[in-house]
Amino acid sequence: MKLFNFHKPIVGGVHPIARKAESNALPINVMPMPKRLYVPVQQHSGNPAVPEVDVGDRVWKGQLLAHGQGNISAPIHSPTSGTVIAITPHTAPHPSGLPILTIVIESDGEDRWLDNVMPIDPFGMSAEQMIDKVGQAGIVGMGGATFPAVVKLRLSRRSKVHTFIINGGECEPYMTCDDRLMRERPEQIVDSIRIVLHATQVERALIGIEDNKPEAIAAMRLACRHRADIKVVAVPALYPMGSAQHLIKTLMGVEVPSDGRSADVGALVHNIGTVYAIHKAVRFGQPLVSRVITVSGGVVKQPRNIEVPIGTLLSDVFEFAGGFEQAPARVVMGGPMMGYVVPDLNVPVVKGTSGILALTAKEVSEQQPMPCIRCGSCVDACPCGLLPLQMAAHIRSDKLDKATEFGLVDCIACGCCSYVCPSHIPLVQYFNYAKSELADQQRAIHKNEETKKLVELRKQRLDREAAEKAAAIAKRKADAARKKTEKAS
Amino acid sequence: MLSAVMSLTALGLSLGFILGYAAKFFKVEAAPIVEEIEMMMPGSQCGQCGYPGCRPAAEAIASGAALVTICPPGGRALAEQLAEKLNVVIDLSGMKAEAPKIARVSEATCIGCARCAKKCPTDAIIGAQKQIHVVIRDACIGCGACVEVCPTECLQLHPIAATIKSWKWVKPDAPLLA
After folding, report:
1. Which CATH architecture has domain A21-291?
2. Which of A31, A186, A242, A412 is in Cβ range 3.0-4.6 Å of A169 for a Cys bridge?
3. Does domain A367-489 have CATH number 1.10.1060?
4. What's the pLDDT band for A259 if we cut at 50, 70, 90?
5. How many beta-carbon pairs under 8 angstroms link A with B?
6. Does the distance separating the beta carbons of B167 and A436 come in below 8 Å?
7. Which has the minimum average pLDDT: A100-104, A216-220, A446-450?
8. Which residues does chain A have within 8 Å of residue B124's beta carbon, measured at their own beta carbons?
9. Are B153 and B103 within 8 A, CB to CB?
């Protein structure tokens, strides 16, 4: 452990081989519309959306396919014009590879927008209307967390948020989609920042960009040179700089509390891709129906950034990128540090997909885990100040409560510990397992409580029914007795 | 007259006071641990544990006659809570093996006899006489009480299919860590 950390803005972190040069030189290509699109009803955290269309319906680009339900949810829109040919379970872009309800659209090749999608003057709208537009467009955090953007904007308006942080960290190796967006469309991003500042009444904006993207920094500086309230800050290239809490720490010098959120320290954080989507929604009324993704990895013939309609299958995207040189050893959705392996190429690109990688066996370099030698490398690397080796040892022996005491909930699953471990112990995999196991236990406890309520309600019902029955019998008896006396008299 | 009223009132008050005090201080207590365990249990009286209800099961757990893992609806979470409460070490390996199940009505064979709905401890079955009945998935605890009374065997317990929400990461299999 180092006592002094003057040269590093955050504790821990690693410097993985960047591998960004493969894909950051070429401009963003727009992918031609594939024949079929597979749009899952859940592409966001929270409740799944509820389909509004039926099989056989004619839909236009930007038409609402499924509406959000509950406070934390997001609507889903049609990525092109065509026909709904099925609403069926399909392999989900999720580490489980389980099926999820998916709306399948056959493109008619016209790609015609819905009539009411047209440019608007956002500054003629009230702040509330602007924020509503973001919600209606179904925009979610496009860095991968997929939290509905409108919820964060509303919260910032209500709480004392003073700084809007635009996350241009993009610290994952291979990923260059935000880099390319900043280089090619900086005006649109700055325009969106103005919209968000206006809508949320936040005072200033800081654009944090890792210093390994000098072109993006220059482009963004040029685009916001007339705005005193928007500042571009070059931050050191250190994984996981793109984590919201670590970027806040670097830019503002404050730490997000363990049980708190960014808003508690006065920050609103949005990823570059999200900010760009807000621009399209508020300026042009376009819902989120496409996104820029990085297509890279050793076996891809032409690694590059591609603007892809939501719902495009991975196989179509890889084909557009020139196909494979050889069969990939592993296909990963997201970056190599935090992404997950997909079972096959029949998985669609969704709102939270920042990139897809087809890797060679050498890039994967899978190794057999060996016993822990207690070297403490993982402790040095952990950007959250945790003790990965200790937590993993407890989880291994099923002592999840002990692991929780060691701060399991503060783990951001960045994978730095697994990356540095000389014994190749799957540390972050242990933490992911433990978190899902704890969530499962929480669900069980919740179900137990609900069962108790149901049993209580049933008891009340039975008591009420018994009382009603008794009353009815008593009434009948009384009636009979009265009739008897009437007859007698 | 007045003295009689006053002395009887005084006598009544003082005796009442003594009785009230005695009730508080010489109270015969039921073992509080049984109550506490009963509070933690689902309370659906489903009888899957082999005891006639949650109270007898709680008594058995408290006296050590039954293991803390006997409650299937409570599952692993309840077993861990109970183990912590009673300070016992438990073997959870047996609990993982069986996936949780819930009841489902096969529409083809349901005759609408309404027997199952009357038996359900959580009122998870709805339907009227001569109508096809249906099980509300979220409310079913998989106790199997309905399966026993169904005359056409149309009610069966089925394992709950994994969904993305309920899916869990697999525990990594690595050699001894430390």
Report:
1. 3-Layer(aba) Sandwich (3.40)
2. A242
3. yes
4. confident
5. 106
6. yes
7. A446-450
8. 454
9. no
Q: Is the pLDDT of residue B94 over 70?
A: no
SS3 content of chain A, % helix, strand, coil (to 5): 40, 20, 45
User: What band does A484 get if pLDDT is binned at 50, 70 and 90?
Assistant: confident
Name the closest residue on chain A to residue B54, using Cα atoms.
A452
Put simply, the answer to whether A100 touches B164 (Cβ < 8 Å) is yes
Binary contact (B168, A42; C-beta < 8 A): no
Alpha-carbon span A153 to A192, nearest angstrom = 13
Taking an 8 Å cut-off on Cβ atoms, the answer to whether B171 and A94 are in contact is no
pLDDT at A277 over 90: yes
| Mean pLDDT for the stretch of residues A85-105 | 94
Residues of chain A contacting residue B175, judged by C-beta atoms under 8 Å apart: 369-371
The alpha-carbon gap from A40 to the nearest alpha carbon of chain B, in Å, equals 12
Mention every residue, 6+ apart, whose C-beta is less than 8 A from residue A377.
A420, A421, A422
The single-letter code of the amino acid at B72 is P
Question: What's the ipTM?
Answer: 0.80
CATH 1.10.15.40 fits B32-86, yes or no: yes
Nearest to A448 among B42, B163, B176 (CB): B42
Choose the closest CB to A445 out of B77, B170, B175. Answer: B77
Domains in chain A: boundaries:
21-291, 367-489
What are the residue boundaries of the structural domains of chain B, listed by start?
A: 32-86, 101-159
Question: Across chain A, what does the average pLDDT equal?
Answer: 93
Contacts of B168 in chain A (CB under 8 A): 433, 436-437, 440
Domain B101-159: give its CATH code: 3.30.70.20
B96 touches chain A (CB under 8 A): no
pTM of the predicted model as reported, rounded to 2 decimal places: 0.84
Contact yes or no for B178 and A372 at CB 8 A: yes
Give the C-alpha separation, A36 to A106, whole Å: 5
Percent of chain A with pLDDT over 70: 98
The tens digit of pLDDT for each residue in B41-79 reads: 877 778 888 888 888 888 888 888 888 888 877 777 788
Inform me whether the pLDDT recorded for A379 exceeds 80. Answer: yes
Percent of chain A at pLDDT exceeding 90: 84
Q: Cα torsion at A280, A281, A283, A285 (round to 10°)?
A: 120
Phi and psi torsions of A144, nearest 5°:
135, -25
In chain B, which ranges are E strands?
A: 101-105, 125-126, 134-135, 155-159
Using the beta-carbon criterion (under 8 Å), do A441 and B80 form an inter-chain contact? yes
Question: Hey, is the C-beta of A375 within 8 angstroms of any chain B C-beta?
Answer: no
Is B122–A458 a contact, with Cβ atoms under 8 angstroms apart?
Answer: yes
Q: What are A465's two structure tokens?
A: 């029914």
